[in-house]
Amino acid sequence: MNGFGKEGKVHLWVLIEARAIRNGIRQSFRMAVIDITERKRMEEELHERTAELVKAKELAESAVEAKAAFLVNMSHELRTPMNAVIGFSSLLLDDSLTPEQKEYIEGIRKGGEALLALINDILDFSRAEKEGVELEHQPFNLKHLIDESLDMVAVQADHKGLNLAHTINYGTPDMIIGDYCRIRQILVNLLTNAVKYTDVGDVSVSVSSKVIEDNKRQILFIVKDTGIGIPQGKMNQLFQPFTQLERTMSRKCEGAGLGLAISKKLAELMGGRIWANSESGKGSTFSFTIPVEVVQGQQLELGETDRGAVFEKTLGQKSLRILVAEDNPSNQRVLVEMLKRLGYRPDVVADGREVIQALERQDYDLVLMDIKMPEMDGITATKVIRRLRPENGPKIVAITAYALEGDREKCLEAGIDDYISKPVQVKELLAILKKCSVLGVAA
Amino acid sequence: MILEANLAGAFLLGTERANLVNNRFQAYLAQRSLQEFNALCRRVMESEAKETAEL
Fold it and tell me: Does this complex have an ipTM over 0.90?
């Protein structure tokens, strides 16, 4: 520190203001010496505090980055083995087994699925917890969103013999701008709960809208069921994380109890809100609102439909030439077995370089591409294929354990046509194969 | 060389006013501030304006 005063004495900081006084040949200065020790001390303290804050901020930022990286890795590491557990047990169930063996395998599969749902829920919750979540702002068809959400619970509803219905009220806009995936996630969460807690009767979705401004609407989604309902005293616990209301209920209905907490966070993130009305034994009504922009000039037709399960088992078109690119032998086998049982004979390679070599030897209609592979990853391989064959290249579908937002965008940017996450479900695989066939990819 | 000083200046430097006169101002500066003080002196000689330095 600069000092002022005799060496050994107290050191001071001073401000010296000096001006020359010219008096003939002789020159002198007039100096004002001001003690600024206190100011300097405060400046130094401020400087130290700022440095500490910067350090703390950097630490916090790196913690957030580490958390994000952890989520990606956890997602990948946990989902990859789950692929083998769920895939192989599904395959085993199709074989001739004793009733006892079948029951055990079914137990493994159900346990695997429950664990996967739990992993997904925890990931979703952590994602929604993170501040500064970026919302999508894309135009989409509201009816498609409702159809797709209902499709996702159709099989379970059909198993339980529940009637699944939807009503779109007059004046509801057709095309809206908002976050499709997140609105669908809330709706699917509520529908899944409704189906889970209803043994007899109906589960219905009703959608209506209210004008906020010229091109802004508040969309109200109402999911109603005729299930076990919620006791009045428990209503305030509903949207708390890791809450399932009754122990007896928990035993009957698995889950982490995160669905409603996630839904609440998502609805609030989008500027909406979520609430519930219920009476024990008489069913529940869950409602949420989301403010959206309207794509002008289009309105939904009035519609009321009853739906049964929509689940096709086989496809008419089976002449697709399929290449599976997957490095993990277990996952490779699961995927190949699934395809074989659906009537396909896929070729298999273990990394991106081999995909390119295989495509040099022969044409394929569809490449099911793992993203994380040794030698050359799926994204790089896709970029190479798209560069080598800008037209008439194969349809490339990423199959990956990465499940975080942004991954889909990375895949699409590279030229990947579609995306399904591990563990691969037969239903999703069928949808992709069907899409390929409908699009006339098959020779 | 200090030609004259007020009481506040003497108090700040921790000495009697009489002791200051005819002493070099640099004697009250820490060694490491000397260079900056000499630079201030040069600037004052060359300029008509008020020059400042924090030492």
Answer: yes
